[in-house]
């Protein structure tokens, strides 16, 4: 699946840390987690 558009996502420091931890645990990039968990 290719994504042709980009979006800016604003996160609090706590949200970013949570995503960073999830990224490390799942061995996936932050962008992948944001795309899969967004409701855009």
Give a description of the structure.
The chain is an all-alpha fold and 40 residues long. Helices cover 55% and strands 0% of the residues. The mean pLDDT is 84. The chain is flat, with a radius of gyration of 11 Å. The relative contact order is 0.17. The chain starts with 12 loop residues before the first helix and ends with a helix.
Number of helices: 2
Global mean pLDDT: 84
How many whole angstroms does the radius of gyration measure?
A: 11 Å
Poorly predicted parts: none
Explain briefly what this protein structure is.
The protein is mainly α and 40 residues long. Helices cover 55% and strands 0% of the residues.
Task: List the defining traits of the structure above.
mainly alpha, flat, 40 residues, single chain, 55% helix
